[in-house]
Amino acid sequence: MPHSPRSIGRALAGCVAIALVAGACSTAEPTAPVTTTGVGAGSSTGSGVGPGTDAGTQPARTTTAPPSSGTSTPSTSRRTPTAPARTPTTAATGPVTLLSGLDIAWSVAVLPDGSALVSERNTGRIHHVPKPGSGGKPSVVGRLPITRTEGEGGLLGLAVPEDFDADPVFYAYYSTDSDNRIAAVPWRDGTIGEPVVIFSGIPRGQYHNGGRIAFGPDGFLYVGTGEAGDTSLSQNLGSLGGKILRITPDGDPAPGNPFGGSPIWSYGHRNVQGLAWDSRKRLWASEFGQNTFDELNLIEAGKNYGWPEVEGRAGNPDFVDPVAQWPTSEMSPSGIAVGPDGAVYMAALRGQSVWRVPVKADGTAGTPTRHLQGTYGRVRDIHFVGDRVWITTSNNDGADRLISLPLSAVGVG
């Protein structure tokens, strides 16, 4: 186990800053593997052209319910990346582009000072976006040592712990040539330091790499993983694939986990790309289905969420049914967030929307409503920041954006 990251922020205070990458990246998925190594770059996500998957069509399978109708065509245009947009210096009431020209912005992590870090899946670059209204300009602050191949791997989730101000270290989930892993990354004077790997061995594949990480109200790091295209991993408690994990900031299994010394918190997942807690400290997770249903799940320790035995609601007491489900044509969910009104908001890739799901005290859901349908194309991540909502696009056209919107745009109020 590598040395503790809770001390690396102080220990690496004088480390050499990461060299920034000035070259532009390809705006299309490579037809042959492309390896990016060394510290200091970001990445983005794939085209997600198949049902129930982020990128690529998956084989059909028998499910417990008939597929629902509905289609949605993702953007296939390719444009030359543009320069990052300047952070606005005045208050805005309408949509504002905070960052542009991205090769798939995958995750947004808001820092305590109101600025944010944005991961770029296909390049490994991390962008810093100053607090809106500060007059600052976005910049690339470093690059992580990803190995990028065709598909969904690369630089994925970012997470900021609650004690960031005291020990400025954030966390990143990314792909190598052999696995997916998590590193603690020091933040010093507007750049990133040398990442320290705290957790490795998460299965990686062309598809279904999971990638969402988030700190829970208990201070532990939760990790959404995918089954990397091997459905047998989801039900295998000896594998990290197809799970939600719960670990300490040092990468150890968190105390109180349901399977002894295992980092596994829940299992039977296909591809988890969204994690969020509500005011009752309940964990909600988005789940990519295959050909029939995408899901919103209420996560409980030690429970089995059914994949690949079931997809969507099955009424089988051996598995936990989703709280809400959608045809894959309407959803393909990635990032989620709990809004100021207590509803769960889900970013939809194939569905090219934001879905608002009212959730009740008993853990059931009200009627979901759809917002921004087709307005910005595929939506990857969503965060509520002050009196605004931030979303990232994932159109894989070299012109993806981080956009700030009024809360009313997604149904708040």
UniProtKB/TrEMBL annotation:
Which residue intervals are annotated with compositional bias (Gly residues) in the record?
A: 39-53
Q: Which residues form the Glucose/Sorbosone dehydrogenase domain?
A: 102-399
Indicate, by first and last residue, each region the UniProt record lists as having compositional bias (Low complexity): 55-94
Q: Could you tell me which residues belong to the region Disordered?
A: 36-94
Domain of life of the organism in this record? Bacteria
Q: Where is the signal peptide?
A: 1-24
Please give the SUPFAM superfamilies that the UniProt record associates with this protein.
Soluble quinoprotein glucose dehydrogenase
Which keywords does UniProt give here?
Signal
Under what name is this protein listed? Glucose/Sorbosone dehydrogenase domain-containing protein
